Amino acid sequence: MKTLTKVSDEQSASRSFVLNDIRTSKTLRWSGMVSLVLFGCGGLASTAIAKPSSATSKPTKRVVKRAPVRKLAEKRPTKRVVAQPTTRPTSRPAHMPPRRALSKGKHLIMPPFPKVPVLKRRIPPKAIKNNGPFAHSVLISGGWKPHVNYYSHLLYLRLMRQVLQELGVEDPFMSIFASDGEDTDPDLAIQRSEKRPEHWLFRFRRELRFFPRKPTLINSSIKGTRLHEAKRSVLVKEMKRVHKTLKDDGKPLFVFVTDHGTRNRRLRHTRNQRISLWYESLSVQQYQLMMRRFSKRKVVSVMSQCFSGSFAWSIFRKPGRFGIPTGDQCGFYATLPNRYSYGCFPETKLKKSVGHAYRFIHAMRQARTFNEAHKQVLLTDVTPDVPNRSSDGYLYFFLKGDAKADGVKPHVYVDRILKRFEGKSYPGMKEDLSVLSAVAQRFSLARPLNLSALRAQRKSLNKRLRWFRRVERMWRSVFSTARSHHLDGWLKETPMLRGEVKYLLKNLHLLKKSKKQRKAERRKRLKRRLANAWKRARLWKKYRKLSKEVKDLRGMLKKVRGTKRKRRYRRLTKAQRLKAWRDRQFERTRRKLRRRYNRRRWRNRRRRNRRGRARRMRNLRKLRNRILRKGKRLHWPVERIVDTLRKGFLTYVDSRPQLKSRLQLLYSRVEEMKKHVFRLKVQRAALKRMELLLYRIAGRKLLYLDKDPEYQAHHQGLQRLLGCEQTPLSNEPQLADTKLAAPKPMSFSLKNVPLPSWFGISFRPAHKRHPELPTGAIEIQNVYLNTPAKASGLMTGDMIVAVGGRQLREPYEIRERVMLAKPEQPVLMRIIRKGHILDLPVRLKRLVSPPTMKLPPIIGRKLPGLSSLELLSKQSKLPNLDKDTVLVFFWATWCGPCKAALPTMRRWKQKYASRGLRIVTVSNEKAHTIVRWLKSHPRDMPFYNARDKKRGLSRKMRVRATPTFVILKRGKIKLYHVGSRGLGGFEKKFLRFLR
Questions:
Q1: pLDDT of residue 51
Q2: What domains does the chain contain, in order, with CATH numbers?
Q3: Which pTM does this prediction carry?
C-alpha cells in the first residue's frame, strides 16, 4: 500500500471537520480516531486520496458509492476494534477488502461518519480513608408533614454534619434522611419571629384565628451533600448497603434523630413509641429489627424527639421485654417515654430554650466521650426535658420490677437499698455524686440524700407551681376583661361587622376545608342518616309484615261472620283457632307500633324541623349571601371583614393612648408570669433528673455489692452497656472523664415575680340597684377575716365609688387597680355607707402564697327575714321567723340526694308541726321548672315552696351544695347541715329548739 505524503487544503479541512465532530461526541482521543477513520471502518467507507496535478489545477469531485451497512456488518468479523495512538497509519488488516484509488487531481467528499459505540474503561474512584471515630453516621429528620416539619430539624442536621466533619467524618460516610429528600417540592416550614400588634391585642379571643401566623414552605437542602427520603423502605435499604460496606471496619455506628415523636395509642404501655418519618413512622420494634444486622458492632444513638426514652427498650434482645443488655446498642435520649420534648420551632432565630439536640451537638465539640457530653447536657439544657441514658432506663426498669415483685413502692425500695449499702461505694460512684450535686446547684435546688427528701421537695415545688399558674390566670383574666369590654363596645357601634364576625366564627372552619374533606363529611352525614333510616325501615317492615298477616286472618274470619261467636269458634279448626289467637296478639303489637311510630307524629316533627330550619336560614341568609360564593372556597368578603376588624380595632386602641398603655402593661404581666411558670417547670424537670441519678446510684450499688448470681449476671450486662456509653468522640487515646465545669446557677427570687396585691372582699356591681351611682361602683358582699379590707374597717354592704382618687368607670376596674397597686402603701378608697361618704386608707398586701379566705362564723348570725324569696305554693305568706322554728331546705329538681331526703322531711312535718316546726324549701332554678316538678309530684313536697330568684339568701347562708339544712330560731342561724346522710343526728340536735 502506498503511503500518502501530501494532502490538499480542502482535504485537510474536510478531515479536520470529521475529527472535530467526533471529538465533540467524546468517544475517542484524536490520535486513535485518525487510524479508526482511515483503516478501522472495515469497508464502511473505502476511500483513497491522490496528489493534485499542480497548484493551479482546479479540484474535481468524485462521489464514492457506499456499501450497504447490513451486508458489511455480516461480513465483518466480531473482533474488537482498538484505536492505536499513532500519527502514522498502520498496515491494512488482512480481512479488509481492497481499496479503490481515485484518479489524479480528484478530491474526496467524505460521507457522513456513523457513530460507533466505544467501550470506556471504568476507572474506580479513589478510596477515601475514614479518619473519623465512627464507621458510618446516620442522621434522621422525617418531619411527618410539610406544615409541621420545622426549620429547627434541618438546622440540627446541618450543625451535626458540621460537628462530624470537625471530628473527621467525611460526607461519603454519612447518610442524611430529611423529609422528601432531593424532591424540589416545598417541605420545610420557616417563620420570621415578627410580633404584630393584632397577635397580643386579640390574644385569648376566638377572633385570633383570623390572624394565623402561617409559616412559609421552602425546599429543604444541605449544601454539598445528598438528602435521602425519610421513608422506612429507603432507610432499611440504606442500612443494608451500609452493613455490606462496613464489614472490614470495626468502628461503631452513630445514629442521630431530631424529629417529632408520636405516642403509640394502641398500647397502654410506653415501650413501643414511634419516630415520625415522612408521612410514616418508625416504632421501637421496627427500629430494633432494622439494627439487628449490626449485632456485632456498637450502635450509639442520640435521639431528641418526643417520647424518645421509649427507645431505651431497644437495647434488649427482644424489644419491649426486659432482660440483660448485650452492650451492642446504647443511646442518649431527650426525655422520658411518656413526656414531650422541647426544641422544635419554625422561627429562623434561635430561642433561649433550644432543647436537647442543640445542647448535645455543642457538647460533642468539647467532650471526649458520649457519656461526658451527656453530663454537660444535664447542666446546660434549660428546658423541662429529662435527658437520660440507656443505662439510666435499664436500672430504673430493674429496680421498679424488683419493687413490684416485693410488693413495695419503688421509692421505698430505693431508700432501703441506699440505707442498706450506706458508706459503701462502687467504681464511678464519685462521678455520679458529683453530677447529682452539680445538677442541684445549677437549678437552685437542695441536694437530696434519698427519694423521700426529693419527693418532699417536689411537693413544695408543685404547690408553688400551682400558685404561679393561678396568678398567671388572674393576670390573664384582668387583661381579657379590659380588652373584651372595649372590643365588644366597639363592635356594638358597627352591628353589621359584628354580625359578620359572629357568622365567620361559626362557619370559617367549613370555608377552609377542601372539596375532598367536604365530600367526606357529606358521605359521613349521609351514612348516619341512612343508618337511622334503615333502623326505622326495619321496624316499619316488621309492622307491615304483621299488618299483612292480620289482614289475611281477618279475611279468613269473615267467612263465618254470620254464625254466633261460640258456634263459630267451635267450627274453626285448630289451625284457625291458633290464627285467631295470633290475630289478637298481632293487633296488640300493631297498636304498640302505631303509638311508637305514628306517621302523623313523624310528619309533624318533620314539619317543625322544617319550620325551625327555615327560620334559622332566614336569619342567616343576608350574612351568608355576603360571604358564600359559588365555586370559591375563600373569597374577598372574608378578607375584607378580617381586615376591617384588625384595622378598626387597632385604630380604636391607638386613638386612646391611656387605654393602650394599660393593656400593654397587663399583657406584659401575663408574659412575665409565663416565664416564671416555665422556670418552675424546668426546676421540676431537674428534680426528675436527680431522681434518675438516685435510681442509678442505688441500682449500681445493688448490682455491684450483692453477690447473688442473678444480680451478677445483670452487673455484667450493665458493664457492657456502660462501655458502649463511653464510646470516644475522637481517635485519640482517651483518659478519664474530666471534672464537670458547672454553669452559673439559675437565679430565682420572688422579688422579680410580678405577684399582685390583694384586698380580701367579694363584691357585685351596684349600678343596677342604685342607678344614681357611677357605672363602676360596687357593693361589698363579704369581708374575709385577716385581710387588708378587714383591717381597714370595711363592712358588708359598703359601696366603693373611687380608688386612689380616680372614679371607677367599670365594675371590673377595681380588681385591676388593686392588683396593680404597690403593696404596703396606703390606697385611699371612697365608700358610701348608709348614705354617708367616707374616705378610708387601705394598706394592700402582696400575694406571696394562696390566701386563706375565711369568713366570720355563720352560726348565731341573724337574718332580716325571708322577703327576698318568691313563694310558689298555695300558702299566702311565708312563716314568721320571730315566732316559729323554721327549717330552710335548699334543693334542686335534678338533685338525687335531695329527693331521697323528702320522706324524712314529710315525717318531721307530721311529727313536729304541733311543736312549731315550719319547713321552707328554697331552689334557685327557673320558676316554670320548679312548678312543673311540683305538679308532677303533688304529694312529695307539702311544704312552703319558694324560689331564691337572685340567690341573695343562698349567699347570706353560704350555701355551696345541695341538699343543705338550716335551722332558724327567732331569725338566728342555730344549726347547719350539708348532705342527706346523718339526718338522724341532725333531728336529735334540732329538737331542743322546738316548743
A1: 38
A2: 9-108 (no CATH), 137-205+215-406 (3.40.50.1460), 511-638 (no CATH), 756-846 (2.30.42.10), 870-993 (3.40.30.10)
A3: 0.72
